[in-house]
Design a protein that fits this description.
The complex is a heterodimer of chains A (443) and B (434). Chain A has 443 residues and is an all-alpha fold. By secondary structure, chain B is mainly α. Classes of the chains: A mainly alpha (443), B mainly alpha (434).
Chain lengths: 443, 434
């Protein structure tokens, strides 16, 4: 039951990459022959910012959800976009194109190092950063009001610094928002989730970090007239503290997930459920949830509930055949789910997850006819579990087709048609999307 | 880094710095607090009379920001936190001098959101103003300028602002430490001063270096870079975010701790006769570890090992697990190794794995090492609880002294571990668990 037409690759990612490349070409063309002269004049400044962007890119921050942010690179970029007077150096009086080239150089250095280390380069994110830098630098150094750009105003010492600071924060905010929106667009396409959901997640998660970045970039530029290039490391120090704090938060989230995964594997180790079944169901549930437009927070609970959906089998006296609950009698399924929920309730924080596990066996008919409220999460897990029990984790078209047929027999009676529809989208190119998106919702 | 673990009480004014309400040495503590408050007020008065106090915009804004920091609240549940008081105090030393810093300290010290006794607030007032004035003098002594408006260049600024702030920072930490250790000693009356001071310094020292750097940035931006009060917004914004992240971290860490209880619940679902066993063994193991003088980190690892030592049983057939109370069946003997296998995926439990894996074996074979072995501690606690609370397959339970006597005869047993067990049993009797 695959969709008849396979969707074209990833037009949005291509568009962002294309515009980024165009911007780079345009910048090269504008700067052209001036480059050697500019490089000589601003050797120290250029070197410092290329290094800052490269280092910031290399120490990417894994966010609690698993996506990565590079706040130190973003802040350096925004500092560069607005910087003017630098103590001990000539004023950085250059066009936005030069800013773009410096950012591109720093990003390229980081990309080479990442490639050498065998890490992903993230071309989409790099292009998004370049476009954000272009917009910010263009705003600061481009349009002139009364013959003066924001940059001109900033180096005029008679203008109160508070006003200058406000202008710089504005420019940095616009630049960072552009970068974020583009990144979200590319990500949404890859995860097959609606763009608004991806944008909400992206903004929701990085919002606090964004405040820190839009404050730190201007901080560099405001300190530079008296503190020189040393402002770059100095002004980024508070942001580095933030970095450490968020990294700790993210690490804790990761070990939390490890604990849940350990719980989910207990039944596998005891031979009650087939190996890797819970992990596959969780993976598939998250992908279905994404297609249905669920947000990160809910997806995490879906993932945890899916990982733990068979926990109740732990106290069975005899294992079920193949551990497949889809083939068990409805009463037994229900008992297992209730036992799982009871165990999970030992943690108050997992109350919602326990509820999802308990309701996973409820038939969709009971939702329709009796108005029984069953959470979307439970309906997703029911479908994902059935799919995995029926395919046994195999991806070949024969198994998938057979499983889909079987699930379609129960459409509307056993399973929620909307969820089954999302299952079809999510499994349309399952192996491909699994490679492209190594991180499930919550790591 | 501005990271402040609170395994010791925070060195910045916080609720754990507050003396308990009904301690034996109440009177002495009260006198000490009055003395500290008098010292702070006296030093501030002295600074004002000798150096004068200019009440200008800078002072007002600093005082205002200091007042605002109450809003950020105490770092109660979080293991890590960031406090702004110290940053504002250091910046005040460099911007408005010792007298102004003292005034800011008097205003900010007693303010703290949440329930805090009057005495704690008075103590914090005295401590904050004392370290602010003394730090302010240290700043000037180290060549610091209280008017740094016309400084230019990194070298000049570091010399006349950066290094002096660092010196003031050290003085602040030292004064803070001495006063705080004094009040903790008097109010709780236990522990050696030196150990206390060292714990506090180790846990909060690095944060204070971070606070010094942030205060330095604040001063540079405020005066030489001429941004004025607006610099507070730009410098502190990232730190607010860091605080937010730590708060999130604390919340999830709590959830994570609860998730361990689910592992225990899984054991108890599998083996109903073990209900409560894991928690009791965890408590005993932790107390025994403390009595044996294991490092705090090892004690925590041992306690967690106690909590999860039976997890391997969940991967065995239910009939086998339920059929036997004490570990006698040969298949059941594999449960420690199975537990280790299951827990290997959780990175923060790596310190507990060894004890989980060897807790049965340690009872039967003397360990080669010299120090107390966490696996033996756990093994003893486990065996004691099995003998006295869970019971043998025929349902017989031993009395505590019988069980201890039998444990003494185990080939791997050490006398200090048995004594630690006896000590822990006394502690259990005297501790009222709600």
């Amino acid at each position: 039951m695959r969709p008849p037409v396979t969707r074209p690759g990833r037009p949005r990612a291509l568009a962002v990459l294309g515009v980024g490349a165009l911007l780079l070409l345009y910048a090269c063309w504008v700067v052209g022959g001036d480059l050697p002269h500019l490089l000589r004049l601003h050797a120290a400044t250029t070197g410092a910012f290329v290094a800052a962007v490269a280092v910031g890119e290399l120490v990417r921050l894994p966010m609690p959800s698993g996506r990565e942010a590079a706040p130190l690179a973003s802040a350096s970029v925004m500092g560069l976009a607005v910087i003017g007077l630098i103590e001990g150096e000539p004023p950085f009086d250059v066009s936005a194109a030069v800013v773009v080239l410096i950012v591109a150089a720093g990003t390229a250095v980081a990309a080479v190092v990442r490639r050498l280390r065998g890490l992903g380069v993230g071309a989409g994110q790099a292009a998004a950063r370049l476009l954000g830098a272009g917009v910010a630098a263009g705003l600061a150094r481009g349009p002139a009001v009364d013959g003066r750009t924001l940059w001109d105003v900033a180096i005029d010492q008679s203008v109160p610094r508070e006003v200058v600071g406000l202008g710089m924060v504005f420019v940095a905010t616009v630049g960072v928002v552009v970068e974020t929106v583009l990144t979200a667009g590319v990500r949404a396409e890859r995860q097959r989730s609606p763009w608004p959901t991806a944008l909400r997640d992206e903004l929701g998660e990085v919002a606090p970090l964004t405040y820190a970045v839009v404050a730190s970039g201007p901080l560099v530029a405001l300190m530079a007239p008296v503190f020189g290039l040393a402002s770059l490391p100095a002004a980024l120090f508070p942001l580095a503290i933030t970095y450490v704090a968020v990294a700790r938060y993210a690490r804790n989230r990761a070990t939390y997930r490890q604990t849940i995964a350990t719980l989910s594997e207990l039944t596998e180790r005891g031979g009650y459920t087939p190996p890797a079944h819970a992990g596959r169901v969780a993976d598939l549930s998250v992908r279905i949830g994404r297609v249905l437009g669920m947000q990160d927070d809910s997806l995490r609970e879906v993932e945890y509930a899916a990982l733990l959906h068979d926990l109740g089998q732990i106290s069975l006296s005899e294992p079920l055949p193949d551990g497949a609950t889809v083939l068990a009698a409805p009463h037994d399924q229900h008992e297992i789910a209730m036992e799982g929920g009871r165990i999970i309730r030992a943690a108050e924080a997992l109350e919602t997850v326990a509820g999802y596990v308990e309701a996973q066996t409820t038939r969709y008919r009971q939702v329709l006819e009796l108005g029984e409220p069953v959470a979307l999460a439970s309906r997703i897990i029911k479908v994902a579990n059935a799919f995995d029990d029926l395919t046994g984790g195999r991806h070949d078209p024969g198994s998938v087709e057979a499983a889909m047929e079987r699930i379609h027999l129960g459409l509307g009676y056993e399973y929620d048609p909307a969820v089954v529809g999302a299952l079809e989208v999510a499994t349309a190119d399952a192996p491909v999307s699994r490679l492209a998106e190594r991180e499930p919702a919550a790591r | 880094m501005s990271v402040e673990p609170t395994d010791g009480p925070p060195a910045a004014p916080g609720p754990s710095a507050s003396p308990g309400p009904s301690q034996p040495s109440d009177l002495a503590t009260g006198a000490y607090i009055a003395l500290v408050a008098a010292l702070g007020l006296g030093l501030t008065t002295y600074a004002i009379t000798t150096r004068g106090l200019v009440i200008d915009g800078t002072l007002v804004v600093l005082a205002f920001v200091a007042v605002l920091t109450w809003w950020s609240g105490p770092p109660v549940d979080s293991q890590f936190s960031i406090t702004f008081d110290s940053i504002i105090s250091l910046a005040a030393m460099a911007l408005v001098g010792p007298a102004g810093a003292g005034v800011v300290g008097i205003i900010s010290g007693p303010l703290e959101r949440g329930p805090l006794s009057m005495r704690a607030r008075v103590f914090n007032l005295g401590m904050t103003s004392t370290y602010s004035v003394l730090g302010g003098y240290a700043y000037i002594w180290a060549g610091g300028r209280t008017d740094s408006t016309d400084l230019r260049g990194a070298e000049e600024i570091i010399r006349y602002v950066g290094v002096p702030i660092l010196v003031a920072d050290l003085v602040q930490v030292a004064v803070n430490l001495v006063l705080l250790v004094g009040v903790i000693r008097l109010s709780s009356g236990e522990g050696s001063m030196r150990v206390r001071a060292w714990q506090l310094l180790r846990s909060t020292g690095p944060s204070y270096v971070g606070y010094g750097i942030v205060a330095f940035l604040l001063v540079v931006l405020w005066e030489p870079a001429a941004l004025g009060p607006a610099s507070v917004v730009l410098v502190l914004a990232p730190l607010l975010v860091a605080r937010w992240a730590y708060a999130q971290f604390a919340e999830e860490a709590k959830a994570h701790a609860q998730a361990l209880d689910v592992l225990v619940a899984a054991v108890e679902a599998k083996a109903p006769h073990l209900v409560g066993h894991s928690a009791r063994v965890a408590e005993l193991s932790g107390w025994m570890g403390e009595h044996l003088g294991l490092r705090p980190h090892t004690v925590a690892d041992t306690r967690v090992a106690g909590l999860l030592h039976d997890l391997g049983q969940t991967t065995l057939p239910t009939a086998l697990v339920r059929g036997t109370g004490l570990g006698t069946g040969s298949a059941l003997d594999t449960y420690p190794a199975r537990g280790v296998e299951a827990l290997r995926g959780i990175s923060f439990l790596s310190g507990s794995l060894d004890a989980v894996g060897r807790h049965r074996e340690a009872l039967h074979r003397p360990a080669p090492g010299d120090g107390p072995d966490p696996a033996l501690v756990l093994g003893a606690a486990d065996e004691f609880d099995l003998l006295t609370a869970v019971g043998t397959p025929d349902g017989a339970l031993l009395a505590a002294d019988e069980a201890v006597a039998r444990l003494r005869t185990a080939p791997g047993m050490r006398e200090d571990v048995v004594r630690a067990l006896e000590h822990a049993l006394v502690r259990r009797r005297t501790t009222v668990t709600p």
